[in-house]
Amino acid sequence: MSATSLPPSGWTPYMSDPVLYNTLTRKKEPLSDQSVGIYVCGVTPYDTTHLGHAFTYTAFDVLIRYLRFLGRDVTDIDDDILLRARSREMHWKELGDREYAKFMADMQHLNNLPPECEPRATEHIPEIIRLIDGLLAKGCAYASDGNVYFDVKNYPNFGKLCGLSYVAQLEVANERGNFPADPLKRDPLDFVLWQAKKDGEPSWPSRWAEGRPGWHIECSAMSMKYLGESFAIHGGGGDLVFPHHEAEIAQSECLTGKPFVRHWMHTGMLYCGEHKMSKSLGNMVFLADLLPVCPPDAIRLYLLGHHYREPWNHDRRELAAARTLARKFSHTLNGGGEEASDEEIGRCGSGVLAALADDLETPKAIEELRRLANSAEPEARRVGRTLGKRVLGLTFDTSGM
Ligand code: ZN
Q1: How far, in Å, is the centroid of ligand 1 from the Cα of 24?
Q2: Would you say residue 396 lies in a domain?
Q3: Is the pLDDT of residue 282 over 60?
Q4: 358 and 264 in a common domain
Q5: How many Å lie between the centroid of ligand 1 and the Cα of residue 335?
Q6: What's the pLDDT at 14?
Q7: C-alpha 59 – ligand 1 centre gap (Å)
Q8: Which is nearest to 56 in space by CA: 234, 279, 298?
Q9: Is 242 inside a domain boundary?
Q10: Do 117 and 187 fall within a single domain?
Q11: What is the 222 CA–ligand 1 centroid distance (Å)?
Q12: CB 343 within 8 A of CB 300
């Protein structure tokens, strides 16, 4: 469709339900909810914001902007990832607060909207303890010498999200912090709901032992508290599918008997050369290093130039191309003036909106934006500016470039 052609008759971007890929069903499914609760988990608890984090949060930022543009009522909750940072050298709360402030500043620079609510697990200990009590009462969990574990073998659907065999599940869990030889467990895959106190860690009293909650139960408690026992979208990085999100499903559904989440969305991993960007490999590109030399629009266009589910490689040439594109957009689409009307968006913006309606195809949406920016028609450029700002979160401000 050319940028200025009419949309197909009878089709309006406001009426149709977007389709989103669901990790649970392994297919694209329409999102029909008018009220959409979204809970996004942090990627890695310990790192300063790197491009991989920025990729996940920017993808969900565009999803939220787009759904609000469609008139959906979105409630978004971000798991307060960095408060989970624990350190023996520094008081955990001080470290958490400091890292969290840095993370929020990075997200703000990138023009990602702040979530409506960022619950802190440390402020939800009574809720978490109630869930663990509920799981014990239902026989889905067992207490063992001050710890409480989820009883994986007692939950036949364990593995429905990841689709892995028991052996493969154990392998992945062990790579991601599972301790299979824990003598207090009945099964090596059982995961901790309550962990008795270890030196240097924050702890709270409980009837099992002074201790702290396991990571998985924190997210179930907070998401269900703010979004209800069943909600629309739960997401995070692809490395959270197993065991984190699998565990969340198991413990939440054991407890409520209801489907926990309708759409599971996961972002692809960001690689640097052969390897995933990670702290242990020391190959991270930090947002704080890029922001002073790269305008936020360039970083957004660089990130959104990759579909959210795609694993991809960091490439400086691509970042430079995104910078050139950001400069071009700031010349052709910037300027004050009116927002485009609904009629104008209906006439010129259907390409951008159709791309996003198809599982948030941001690379296609950017191509459509480029067509609008190249148009000689002021109306097309006005639509480009409006959708670029409202849906893709661009500012068109490249001062200092
Ligand atoms: Zn989580």
Answers
A1: 16
A2: no
A3: yes
A4: no
A5: 41
A6: 54
A7: 17
A8: 234
A9: yes
A10: yes
A11: 9
A12: no
Query: Does residue 226 surpass a pLDDT of 50?
Result: yes
Domain presence at residue 400: no
Tens-digit pLDDT profile for residues 52-81: 889 999 999 999 999 999 999 999 987 655
For residue 294, how far is its CA from the centre of ligand 1 (angstroms)?
Answer: 31
107 and 184 belong to one structural domain: yes
Q: What is the pLDDT of residues 175-186, one digit of tens each?
A: 988 999 999 999
The alpha carbon of 197 and the centre of ligand 1 are apart by a number of angstroms equal to 21
118 C-alpha vs ligand 1 centroid, how far in Å? 12
Q: How far is CA 202 from CA 87, 94, 122, 208, in A?
A: 10, 12, 9, 16
Q: CA separation (Å) from 145 to 133, 134, 181, 183, 197?
A: 16, 19, 15, 10, 12
Q: What is the mean pLDDT of residues 279-305?
A: 89
**Residue of 109, 86, 87, 120 whose CA lies nearest to 286:** 109
What's the pTM?
Answer: 0.91
Pairwise CA distance, residues 264 & 62, whole Å: 16
The answer to whether residues 244 and 298 belong to one domain is no
The predicted-structure confidence for 321-371, as pLDDT tens digits, reads as follows 999 999 999 999 986 678 899 999 999 999 999 999 999 999 999 999 999
Ligand 1 (ion): which residues have CB within 5 A?
41, 79, 219
Range 113-121 average pLDDT: 82
Is the pLDDT at 151 greater than 70? The verdict is yes
For the chain, the domain total comes to 2
Q: How far does residue 143's CA lie from ligand 1's centre (Å)?
A: 23
Question: How much is the average pLDDT of 302-307?
Answer: 98
Range of the domain at 341: 294-305+316-390
Q: What is the pLDDT, as a whole number, of residue 123?
A: 84
Statement to judge: residues 136 and 251 lie in one domain: yes
Select from 35, 66, 112 the least CA-distant residue to 359. Answer: 66
Overall average pLDDT of the 249-264 stretch = 97
User: Measured in angstroms, how far is the CA atom of residue 193 from the centroid of ligand 1?
Assistant: 13
Identify whether 268 is part of a domain: yes
d(CA 389, CA 368): 14
From first CA to last CA, the distance across the chain in angstroms is 33
CATH number of residue 300's parent domain: 1.20.120
Q: Say whether both 328 and 360 belong to one domain.
A: yes
Q: Do residues 268 and 341 both lie within one domain?
A: no
- Using the mean position of ligand 1's atoms as its centre, give its distance from the Cα of residue 248 in Å: 8
Q: How far is the CA of 224 from the centre of ligand 1 (A)?
A: 12
Distance 272 CA to ligand 1 centre (A): 25
